[in-house]
Amino acid sequence: MLSISSHLQEKLSQPLKIGSVEVKSRVLQSPLSGVTDLVFRRLVRRYSPNSMMYTEMVSATEIHHLKQLPRLMEIDENEQPISIQLFDCRPDFMAEAAQKAVAEGAKTIDINMGCPVNKITKKGGGSSLLRQPHLAQTLVAEVVKSVEVPVTVKTRIGWDDKEINILEFAQKMEDAGAAMLTLHGRTRAQGYKGNARWEWIKKVKEILTIPVIANGDIFSVEAAINCLEITGADGVMCSRGTLGYPFLVGEIDHFFCTGIKQNKPTPREKLECAKEHLQGLWEYKGKRGIYQARKHLSWYCKEFPGASELRDKVSRIETVEEGYKLLNEAKESLSLINPCS
Ligand SMILES: Cc1cc2nc3c(=O)[nH]c(=O)nc-3n(C[C@H](O)[C@H](O)[C@H](O)COP(=O)(O)O)c2cc1C
């Protein structure tokens, strides 16, 4: 039995307030570049009707220069609440991009200050803003001035172990008008390695008045509860735990709402979901969707007999039919091994 302190229980019974926006769920689906497109979000939304979703990060410079908005900003009319995540280091481009994002239907604007990828940090975006706190503050203030929806920030604890500056940085974000801070408990230098250091999330929560969302290593209901108990954060954001597993946000939310742990999907249910994911990507993106589906399908193939062979095959598919055939065969052989699987 998982136990929850009465303090946490009380918090979970209340909506998450992001400035003027109220969200019924305290579990959020993170922005994941190359993953959280409209097709993936539809699957997550099915299992978690109330959670906040994020688009993949979008470059404000690109939005400024392109005649048409990038497809990454496309939002289904029924997928609210959803935030569009922007990255850049130019306050004027960010303000302009934020206005366009709101016109597309974004309920909040999220600013990426955590991406560790060189291509982004070299141009002054993502986690490199941790080293430019004044510019980061100006960015937030300019975006806040330009739109009526709440503006939020997602960042890391610091550049590296020698430069863990999140306490001062987080305070600056709040002072500049950010309505919520999501904190990934790793440094930029850590990338995705090592444990997320939730102790820093606790320290930040203690000094801010805006909601703080804990991110990093939320792979299960147990981890979500444990993280909230340790950090006192206002919610959790799931990331890598959702790769090939769009059920996670809903599973955690169900427990937060009811105190009951749902049964996990069976391997056959996961493969059925993989088929839908493949079909969705094909319909939405055509051939490019098939190539993107390869990685998604291989993420679905784990923890059942024959998973590693299947992983190998699905990561080379050329057509939707090929993918369907492989997934159907795997489903059949699983039902021969165990009709309830
Ligand atoms: C494939 C991948 C893509 C990501 N893309 C984004 C992104 O577009 N924006 C962002 O803020 N974070 C992005 N992240 C970081 C995650 O949102 C999250 O902060 C990080 O994975 C830590 O959580 P985890 O330990 O639960 O995975 C990405 C991470 C991965 C693995």
Provide tags for this entry.
two-stranded antiparallel ribbon; alpha/beta; binds flavin mononucleotide; Non-ribosomal Peptide Synthetase Peptidyl Carrier Protein, Chain A; 14 helices; 341 residues; TIM Barrel; 2 domains; 46% helix
The first-level CATH class of the largest domain is given as Alpha Beta
For the record, the CATH architecture of the largest domain stands as: Alpha-Beta Barrel
Poorly predicted tracts of residues: none
Q: Tell me the domain tally.
A: 2
Estimate the mean pLDDT confidence. Answer: 96
The assigned structural class equals alpha/beta
Termini gap: 24 Å
Q: What is the string of SSEs from the N terminus onward?
A: HEEEHEEHEHEHHEHEHEHEHHHHH
**What is the fourth-level CATH superfamily of the largest domain?**
Aldolase class I
Report the oligomer.
Answer: single chain
Percent helix, as a range, is 40-55%
Strand content: 5-15%
DSSP helical segment count: 14
Q: What is bound: which ligands?
A: flavin mononucleotide
Outline type: globular
Per CATH, what is the topology of the largest domain?
TIM Barrel
